[in-house]
Write a structure and sequence with these properties.
two-stranded antiparallel ribbon, 3 helices
């Protein structure tokens, strides 16, 4: 039962973070800078989960990603 619960959490987190770079906007920022900020925030929002025995993987916490991008001055279309 625990394993099913963990797999469900991982799946939900992956689905929630499927939004992407195109969702965030900031005036007067180049596409290159926006991509750099986005990937830096994705790295900072990575969380190590253990869905099963001996298995570990990183997933993106969408709340952390949004918080990081907001702190850098970006707005999100999903707000």
């Amino acid at each position: 039962m625990r394993r099913i619960w963990r797999v469900g959490i991982v799946a939900a987190m992956c689905a929630a973070c499927s939004a992407g770079l195109g969702e965030y906007a900031k005036p007067d920022v180049s596409d290159r800078q926006r991509a750099t900020d986005y990937y830096d925030c994705r790295r900072d929002a990575s969380v190590l989960v253990s869905p099963g025995k001996g298995m570990e993987q990183y997933v993106i916490d969408p709340t952390r990603l949004h918080t990081c991008m907001s702190a850098r001055g970006y707005t999100s279309g999903s707000q």
